[in-house]
Amino acid sequence: MNPAIAKLVRPHFRTMKGYVSAGMEAGKDATRVFMNANENPFELPGLEGFNRYPEPQPEALLQAYARRYGVNANQLVATRGADEAIAVLTKLFCEPGVDGVVICPPAFGMYKVNALAAPATAIEVPLLESNGVFSLDVSATIDAAKQPDCKLVFLCSPNNPTANSFALDDLHAICAGTLGESMVILDETYIDFALQQSMVSWLNEYPNLIVLRTLSKSYSMAGMRMGSLLNCDAEFVQLVRSKCLDAYPLTKTSIDAALLALSDELQAHVQANISTLRKERQRLTEALRNTDFITRVYPSDANFVLVALNCVAEFLAYAAQHNIVLRDFSQQALTPNCIRISVGTPAQNDQLIELLSTFRV
Ligand SMILES: Cc1ncc(COP(=O)(O)O)c(C=O)c1O
Fold this sequence. Notes:
By secondary structure, the chain is α/β, with parallel strands linked by helices. It folds into two domains: 3-21 and 56-262, Type I PLP-dependent aspartate aminotransferase-like (Major domain) (Aspartate Aminotransferase, domain 2, 3-Layer(aba) Sandwich), CATH 3.40.640.10; 267-358, Alpha-Beta Complex (Aspartate Aminotransferase, domain 1), CATH 3.90.1150. It is 37% helix and 16% strand. The protein has 13 helices and 13 strands. It has helices at residues 3-6, 11-15, 22-25, 59-69, 81-93, 109-117, 138-145, 168-178, 234-243, 252-262, 264-289, 312-321, 346-358; strands spanning 76-79, 100-103, 121-124, 128-130, 133-135, 150-156, 183-187, 209-214, 227-230, 294-297, 304-309, 327-328, 338-342. It has a seven-stranded mixed beta sheet with strand order 1-9-8-7-6-2-3, sandwiched between helices. Strand 2 (100-103), helix 6 and strand 3 (121-124) form a beta-alpha-beta unit. The longest helix is centred in the C-terminal third of the chain and has 26 residues, at 264-289. It is globular and about 70 Å long. Pyridoxal-5'-phosphate (PLP) is lined by residues 81-83, 108, 156, 160, 187, 189, 214, 216, 222, 227.
């Protein structure tokens, strides 16, 4: 394993043996009789195929992800959403009660929840805000990551909830500046909506970089819980697959659905939806900017927009009365007066835009 990674993995994960399931010992095929996994040999009508355990990391799925993301299949782990990847990485690198992770708030809440559950110290290096643009505090982030017990730096670009992408130069600087000291977990959950490019093509440059991807957003598959983590090192990837995941983490239904979502057949559809959401993001942004009670519309590279307004509670209540549910961020320290609006269909966005013109403070 690359030494920059090996030195950060909790030592027992390197030495312990992982679970070897019956399915790993002998992959299923149509020619043999499988009496090795205590499965029920009978299928129920209408539920054919569910009597057998699914493959833990199906080769066809890994190949399909690899093709879409431009990496080798041995450079990715299929997870139950990016959420599972966040949990697994925290467990793999952070010694409970000893280690810490860097988080750059305002940030996606699950980084901190997983740190607190470990428990690991959540070292917070807030984003800098200037003229309505949030950016990484690069030197403070690197300094925090270099603390002896700090193992992970969670970055998210485009960032939830601020919606913007961070400068690629800053992401490069943090990957380079923390090499051998910390792993950088770059959450690219929203990257397909972004004009900015992914860091996946830099994986081979930075062994400490782990990129998280998901089918939840751009592929419309949140209900299936399918994501992945990517790293250049096949040995590290194999360690995660064999020692950190549940025995059969992915359901047959979700594997089949992901294969369909990733297939050539549906790509035009996926791309058309992304393109519509980008256009709608622009339309929504303009309408929000033309609304006098909204004081700031933060630039978005994602499928949502963060806005600041004078009268959060009243507007949320007004939207709720009209059956539109928005997310309140006004109680969080670094996003006072803010709400987050997910971009909807053109008709749904019309409904929201209509409310902007009829709302009276
Ligand atoms: C930044 C970020 N990361 C990860 C996730 C979770 O993604 P998944 O549905 O793949 O678990 C979300 C969900 O909203 C998110 O906003």
